[in-house]
Specification:
alpha+beta; two-stranded antiparallel ribbon; 1 helix; 10% helix; elongated
Amino acid sequence: MARQVRKADLDTKICRTCGRPFTWRKKWRDVWDDVKYCSARCRAGKSNGG
């Protein structure tokens, strides 16, 4: 049985567009080092600077 990790224990990063912290998601498991934005909206607005 897999041991569950509490949400408070997940890795976090700061979004480059909005400056808000966001946490690791399972869908980012293989690309976490490359994730820079918290959402598609922030990724699309990256040239706006926030």
